Every structure is written in C-alpha cells, then in structure tokens.
Glycerophosphodiester phosphodiesterase
Amino acid sequence: MAPENTLAGIRLAARMGFRAVEFDVMLSADASPFLIHDETLERTTNGHGAVCRTGDRELSALDAGAGERVPSLSEAALLCRQLGLRANVEIKPAQGLARQTAEVVVRQAQTLWGGDSLPPLLSSFSLEALEICRDLAPELPRGVLFETLPGDWPAVVRQLGAVSVHCDATQLSPEQAAAVRQQGLLLCCYTVNEAVQAERLLAWGVNSLFTDRLDLFAADAAT
C-alpha cells in the first residue's frame, strides 16, 4: 500500500490507526543514517550499488517507489513525533560497520527523541550494536532480534539489558512464547501477514506483530 521504509508508509500507518511503526536504518557513505533495509540499493530504489558507498546527496535523490525519497532518520523521527507514533528503530549495519552505525543512531535518537514520552525502541540482530546502545544510551529501551531463539537467549537478553525479544513468527513455539513472557519481557514477532497466524500468536501471549499487510490489520490497530 506504500513503499517500505518511507515517510508515505509512516503516514499511511497513522491514518489507518496503527500506534507504532518499525523501520530499518543504515549509514550512507557520509555516515548519515537513512531508512533502508538492504545493504544494496537495487531492490527498493532506482539506484545501484552499496548503501554504505552512496553519499547523502545521491541517496536523497533516489526514488524509493511511487516518487518517495529515501528518508533520513531525522525526517522519520520528526514525523513519528508529529503523528504520535511509537518507533521501533532497527539498526542494520553493513558488514564491519556495527559499532559506527550504532554510535550514530544512538546519538541521533537521543537528540531527536530527547524528553519524548514515547522514546524509540532500538533493536538489532547485531549484538555488538546493542552493546553500544546499552553503553551510550541506557535510558533508551532495547530489543534483541533473533530468527530462531537460541538456547542461551535469556543470558543474551540479560547481558544487553533488553526489554523485548523479537523473532521469526514461523520459528516460535508456544513453550518459547511462555518462557519469554515469564521473564517479564515483551515478545514481538515478524512478519505476520495472515489473520489466522496473528490470532494464534496473540493467544500465545505475543505482545506485538510486525506486518506488511496494513489493510488486513487496520481494523484491529486501535486495540
């Protein structure tokens, strides 16, 4: 219904009654944080090459679909605050750039959401990035991303001081869901695009769902 990781998608979610959005952030060649999922430009823009080798000016001029630009983190943060949306900022560092990406995102998040009653949730598959988040901004909540929950997930979560566990919806069992909730953690599942699957996960105690199907879940977003 809107290109991914764009301001149009954020606006659409707000209009349809959603209370939170998730977007991916990685660095440009100028070490500026932009909203984009892949390390390369081809799938989601009309550009070519690696995001981390593309400068701010060139990246900002690309078409991310339907005439939308690739937005900066500051643009997305401002819009979320204006619309009253909670933001889940997924840190997606290019290979070898986990530390730098986390440092930039954390510093900007502290400034962009400073004093906000709805601080962003910083999440990542990169444990190194989350360690940086913990050390530089302990006041900002953190979420650990897994595909399949490893056997030592409780220790990982404790070490990072995370408040939430995020995992592949198709890899979660009801027993694992119960174990996460028993630890007092929030449990979030991606990517849920079917109502039946959503109902099953919510019955297991899952707190939040990530979806591409805004049209499927819009009626339930307010609840």
About this structure: The beta strands are 20-27, 33-35, 86-91, 121-124, 142-145, 164-168, 186-190, 208-209. The longest strand covers residues 20-27. Residues 98-112 form the longest helix (15 residues). The chain has a mean pLDDT of 96.
